[in-house]
Each structure stands twice: as C-alpha cells, then as structure tokens.
Amino acid sequence: MTGRGRRAYSPDIGTHEHDDARRGRAAARKREGTVAVEFLERTRTEEFGEKMGMVLNHAALALMTSIGHRTGLFDTMAALPPSTTGEIAAAAGLSERYVREWLGAMVTGGIVEYDERRGTYALPPEHAAWLTRQASPQNVAPAMQWIGVLGGVETQVVEAFRHGRGVPYVAYNRFHEVMAEESAQTVVAALVDHIVPFVPELGERLEAGIDVLDVGCGSAGALIRLAEAFPNSRFTGYDFSEEAIGAARYQAARRGLRNVRLQVVDAAEIEDEAAFDLVTTFDAVHDQADPARVLRNIKRALRPDGVYLMQDIGVSSHLAHNHAHPVAPFIYTISTMHCMSVSLARDGAGLGAAWGKEKALEMLADAGFAVEAVDALPHDPFNLYFIVRHGRVN
Fold first, then answer.
1. Range of 80's domain?
2. pLDDT digits (tens, 9 = 90+) for 325-383
3. C-alpha closest to that of 316 among 306, 308, 304, 324
C-alpha cells in the first residue's frame, strides 16, 4: 500500500514539479521579453533623441549657410588659400568678430576645414561645388534662405493654425528676391537649352515670332530671358504683386527690351481670349486662391493651336507615396508656411505645394485641357513639366 501509494503519488509530485518548472521558464521568458521590449523601446527613444539633435544642428547650419551665401563668404573663401579669420574678413569686407563666430558653426558642422596649428580655415573644393554662385545651377545655398524667410512669419502662421485663415504675401520679407534667385537656377538658366526643347517645335515657333504669356511671372526672370533669346516673339507677364512687377519692369528696361509687356493682373481675373500661342506657369498654380479658375482662364487665353507649359513641384498627391522624396519635409513645410497659407489668406482653395501630379492632371482635365506629356527634366529632378494643349491628344 505504501509503495503503491508512493507510486500513485509520485506522478502527482512529478506533475507539480513539471508545472512549477514550466511556470518558472514562462516567467523567465516573460522577464526576458520585457527586458528586450524595454531595451528596444529605450534604443528607439535614444535614436529618436539623437535624430532631433541632428535636426536642430542642421536647422542652425541652414541659417548659417544662408548667411554665408548672402554675405558672399562662400564665394570669398572658394578663391582663397587656407586663411585666418582676419584675412577672410578683410577679403570679404566684413567684421572679423562675426566671421570668426560664423566659422565656428561652419567648422563644427563639417562645412569648413580648420587647421588648429596654423589657425587657418579652408572651404574644400568639393564643398564649394555646392555652395558658391559659380557652382550654379547646383548651388544649394540660395535655398537655405527660405528658412529665414519662413521663420519671419512663424508667429502669424501659428495664429493661422487657430483661426484657419492664411498669411498674406506682404508679410513675407524678401520672398520675391529669394524666389527670383531660386528660379534663376532651376528655370531661367535652363530655358533655352532644356525647357524650350522639351516642347516639340517650340524653339522654331519662338524664333519665327509668337505671342507668349507668363502667368504669375513674379520678377519675370524667365520671361526676360526668353525675350532676349527670341526677339521676334512678343512676351507678356502677369502677376498680382506690384512689388514683383516693379522689379520686372526695371530689369526689362535696363536690358532695353521692347518686346516685353508687364502688368499687375490677378491670374483669376485674366480676360484675354485666344490671344497667346504659348502660356507658361513656373511654380505658380498651387499658390493661387482659385487655381481652377486660373486654369480655365489660361485655356481661354490660349489660341486653338497653342500650348500651355506648366512647371510645378514633382510630388504625388498621396502622402504615402512621398516618403522616399529627398526633400519632402521641406516641401510640406514651405507649403504650410507659405504656399497654402497665402492662398487661404485670400479665401482660396489652399492647394499647397504638395498638391501633386495626380491632382494637377485632374484639374487640367476639368479645365478642358489634354495633357500631351509630363516629365522631370535632367537639369531639374525636383519639378515636373507638363505639355498641355486644347482638345484631345491622339
């Protein structure tokens, strides 16, 4: 009985011991899993903290790069051998104390090289290739100016988040100046060699003499370049900004151009009918208060055999498709703080800079256009160029 009792009881003891061991192992795995999860969460938290530190440093470097561009320091340093702060300041005609502090940001940011023993600073040629005026069109320094321009309206944009209206164009200090400099690199410099040849037979027509309208022309850098290159054609520029048109008229007069007409006109109020063989917009449609009406006006202003050439930012209308875009955060930022906001300030649609290819095609179709081609050009991978015509393209 005792033996049988022990044998009968032993399995119970074994079962309990097995259960205890199993529970112990499960508890250990749970603890290990908890530790692993905590480690993973801690690692991700630390990595994100490091990322935000980099964001702060990069934002600061963007401001300092803008200053280096505006003061001519990059251009000066590119032409100098390794030099002291005093030598750099003297060559640039600037305050040594300010130059010295600016160089501190440039050195620690990895843009300028510093020889501690000699006390000299140098801008490496491979960095100058991205930061000097001579490096255009790949000079990225002009784009850094947007950080300061947008920062100047931050308080107004914060207020707009609450009331839902926008910030008007007049609030943006230096907007037209910076826009003209950016356009000079991506559009103006490439017009004759890259953009005009994109449209079949356009060069020949411009040589022979046609009527051209640039809508939202700003300071009219593109229009003036075309007028110089194709003196037999006639060029009209419309923009609602008196400041921009004033600057454009000055530049046209300074060049002695007699085939250019510049007027203060809201694109939504264009009344021309079948008056132009070519209509262009460069980075202009998405800012409009009533972009749908603007596109209809452009169609009406275009002659039946004419062509509309639209350049706009090369993104998708769908956020999920823009993850891989190299400057997507910048595009959404400038949209929030300018493009969308200036449209909303005029009770507009607020399309924004990221309205995208799909929305653009939809709106062009709604306006009665037929899109012949859409493509990025080799000189300008961040924008799309649309060749658009009346009626149906076979």
1. 71-135
2. 999 999 999 999 999 999 999 999 999 999 999 999 999 999 999 999 999 999 888 99
3. 324
CB atoms within 10 A of CB 111: 19
Dihedral Cα 377, 378, 379, 381, nearest 10 deg:
70
Please state the pTM of the whole predicted model. 0.85
175 and 280 belong to one structural domain: yes
The pLDDT of residue 44: 86
Domain shared by 329 and 355, yes or no:
yes
Same domain, 263 and 360: yes
Q: Output the domain CATH number for residue 121.
A: 1.10.10.10
Q: Tell me the C-alpha distance between 151 and 148, whole Å.
A: 5
Based on the structure, what is the number of domains in the chain? 2
- 388 vs 372: CA distance, rounded Å: 6
- What is the tens place of the pLDDT at every residue in 50-78? 999 999 999 999 999 999 999 999 999 99
Q: What CATH number is given to the structural domain containing 328?
A: 3.40.50.150
| Closest-CA residue to 346 (of 290, 387, 388) | 290
Q: What tokens were used for 275?
A: 């008056």
Long-range (24+ apart) CB contacts under 8 A made by 104-113 are: 105/60, 105/61, 105/64, 106/64, 106/68, 109/57, 109/60, 109/61, 109/64, 111/61, 111/65, 112/77, 113/82
Asked if residue 293 belongs to a domain, the reply is yes
Q: Tell me, what DSSP letter sits at residue 335?
A: I
